[in-house]
Amino acid sequence: MNLNYELFPNMDEGYMIIPKPDERTQLDIDIYTRFCSAIYLASHIGTDESNHIISNNNIKTAYLRAALAEFITIEELLKVNYPNNADIECYSLIKNENPVFHFLKILRNYNIHLSNSSLGVTNFRAYSPRKPEMIFELNSPIIDNLHVEEFKKLKVYKDKKRRLYSEQDILKMISYFEKEQSSFGVCDLIIRSIIDYSVIVGSFLKNNRIPL
After folding, report:
1. Cys-Cys link to 119, which of 74, 107, 141, 207 (CB 3.0-4.6 A)?
2. CA distance linking residue 88 with residue 170, whole number of Å
3. CB neighbours of 117 closer than 8 A, spacing ≥ 6?
C-alpha cells in the first residue's frame, strides 16, 4: 500500500464556521448532500446535548459513528451513480495515497463492527483573523483509545490474504492522527479530511455527469 504522509492534513487552523464541500460536488446533488451531511455530523461530535435516554458522551460517540459512516458511503454512492465509468475505482478512499482516508475507513469499520471510540478532550486557544486581539479558550473532543492491537482485530489485518496494512502502517497512521487531532479536536480533523476528499470528487464530477 503506497501511502504519502505529506498529504496527511496539517491542522494549522480550525473551523470557527462550518465549511462547505468543494462547490463542484454540487454537479451531483446526491453526492453534494452526502458530503454536507458528513460535515454536519462531524461538526456535532463535540456537542453537549441533554437527553434523558442517552448520556452526553454517548451522543458524541453516536455522532462520530454517524459522521464516519456517512463519509465512507460517498465512495459507494459514486459507484452507484457512475456504474459505467471505468475510472471510478481510482476515486475510492483506499486507492488514494492520503493516509487519513485509509485511517478514517479503518475507524469506521472499528466503530461499526467491533467497539466504540472513547472520547477525551483537548484544550486550545483560538482567535479569528478578523479580530486577532480576541483570544478564546476552547476545548474539543479527541479519540483517546487509538490502540494498534484493537485495529489488528479487523479483517483488513486479520485476513492475511486480504491484509492491506502492516502493523507499522497502522502505528504510523495512529501517530499522525493523534498529532493532528490534538490541535483542534477530532471534529475539525474529520471535517478537513471530508473537504479534502470533496476536492478529489469534485474534480471527477467536473468531467462527468449522471447518465440519463
Report:
1. 141
2. 26
3. 61, 64, 107, 110, 111, 143, 145, 146
